[in-house]
Amino acid sequence: MMRNPGCLSLFLATLVILFLSLIFVDFLDTTLHKLGMSHVGATCALFGIFIGSFINIPVQFLRREEEVFNEPNSLYGMGFGVPDMRRARSFTILAVNVGGCLVPAAIAVMQIVRIIAWGSETLTVMVAITLLVTVVTYYLARPIEGRGIAMPALIPPVVAAIPSYFFAGSHAPSVAFVAGTIGTLVGADLLHLEDIKRINVAVASIGGAGTFDGIVLSGMLAAFLA
């Protein structure tokens, strides 16, 4: 009896996705533990990042002279969403993504408190590396029609991790996380808000869509590498 090759391919693809998801979750959990978070705290942060990636909080409505069309698949940090149902709008919604902005920023604030307690030398290193990441991500980020702001995801964490490893000593994970997260958030998103007014996009989400990977991976991977 011949098996359906389509079903077998779907089954294998599902197994691969589950396996990669488990690896990614374990990677994030390990990274959060390196940042001094408890098991409960790390678990809550993971849920906040994944569930929050589907939640955008509107903060401003920007009126447009021309109509813009929403792209449902670009509303969420993970890059997928509801079926495509285009609707014309006369405004752009500026929103904040919970999983790609608020949760990483909250973790970064916790790390900044720790860094301040470690002394001015570590704090100075953190500020310097954060400024470096901000400059790099500012020039890497690009406004894209229908999506908002997008940027390469792997360069910022490397930029944050390497100097943190050499100059922050045992505090490198925390310094790298703050630099990778805050630097990317400021450089890629906040400093490009004016660009949103010049592109055709219905929803521009800070920490969502094109910069979700940049912000979350920058912080997590930078801390892991450090």
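Second entry:
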Amino acid sequence: MFSMSYRRSAWYSRIMLILVICAVAITFYKIYMSWIRIQDYNLAASNLASGRLIEAEEHYRSTAANQSLNYKDKETQEALFQLQPVSQIKNILTAIKTEVESANDAKDVSRLLAAFSSYKEKKEKYDSDPEEFTKKVFSQAIDFYKLDKLFSDDISDARKRLIKSIQSKLSKKTFSDDPELQQLLSLYAIYDKDNTKQIDEGVALVDSFEQARLGSILLEKSFEDALIEAARIQKLYQDQGFELAWMPAKIETYAKEQLQQIFEQNNIVEYAAKAKAFQSNESWVSTSNEVTALIQYHVREWIKQAEQFTASSANYDKGIELYQQLSALTDTSGRVRDAELRMLENDPGRLFQKAAPGSNYTIVHNSKGTANSTVSVIGVEGKKLGLARLLQNGNVHYAVGNIEDIQPKVVRFEPKLSVQGQPLILIEGSSTNRQFRYAAYVLEGSALRKIWDVEADRYQIEGSGILLVDNTTGNGAGQQSYYEFRDGMYGFTRIKPDYAEISLDNLSNYRNKKVRFNAQILTTDGNTAVIPYNGEYLLLSGPFAFKTGSAMITGKWTSDSEIKKGTQTIHAYVIDVSGLNQ
């Protein structure tokens, strides 16, 4: 029992001791914090009195935060109110300092330079502030946070780091759009812009890197890709406000060497592709008059060569091909057209190649200045009759017709057969029954339409649209037939009579010539008859039953005779009658 009471008493004693110690500690802590507050206030007041505004604001703010003692509260709050601009500037610069330290830890040059730009902007703003108090506060804050030294040290570290990395990549020939290059240039542009020596050293490094990279590009890439890549790199730096001043001259030399080499190889297709690639690249064509002049010179030389080719019919194709290849660099359409015209004029056989590619005509006739054209050529391919014409305007016209079973011996233009003025082709073909088979084709659009087809010995033109044809097959055998142009075709119209229509008074002019005339038969005797004629007589004989009266007589005066009339002997014309109509 006694033992339990003792233990309980000891436990209470320890508790009380702990409480006493805690109370003493709290009392001492409060006394210490009160002393700290008094010290902070005194330091704040002293700094304020001495014009050290940043330190004053720091201690006044520490005093206000220490609530262990109600000491100079009013004075502290009044001072903090007065020092509000100091607090604002401190907040701004503290944020910048924090960002600088964070960017440096992350080795982020872009953030570091962004922080410096922000710092410069704020500095310029406060330096131009009309309030001297604000200027003074900002200046003291910069010194207090040692921002200038902080930027100097961190940017110096970044510069060394960038230079070392770029030098390493340069030695290893590891080329790419490394952001470190732009970061280094940005560093010079933003931080070192007044340090000429520093900038020159950095620019020399960048130039060395990019010159080595360009050399690799020019060796490894195609001409066009090299120009594009070089232009892209140039713009990359221009966007940073930096110029690779040496690059245009390098590209100019490269382009001239490449083009000259291909020109000497006479590889026009490759040359045209590369020259076009250069001309279409605005980054370089605007900076290199020498390359442009070189291209123009080479084009002129090749045009001279093409002119020499087209001066000879044997080399027309070479010249025209050369003109066409050069069309990528200059307008040669007029030269090509002129050369083609000369070629077609001097070698009409090419007209079918131009008019009907793939055809295989046998040329049977060609001429100049006919068929409303400069040059025309007629050809036969199987059952096809083709006409190709080089027109006055330089165009080529082609027309085709069907000759069916005609076997041409002679084919020619025959404009005299053309009633309506269209070009007309006449075929003189083989015939088993007559000397010729005549066939005429007239040009209508892109067709050759047959307008006449007859077998005969010969023909002659009697007038416009009128043909006199000898010994045609059919009704015209052994006679002359008229063919006349009607409804777009030549067709048979009539047989030509083999006699002359005369009046009886003119008979004396037609001895041994077949004539037809009208007369009055006076007397008859079987197959003979007598007609009075100017005091003389006509003595008719023939296989007819003559009758007295009017008659249309066809016959020939073949001889003379006499008729006795009483004691008179009268002259008589003996007419061999071949036709009688009473």
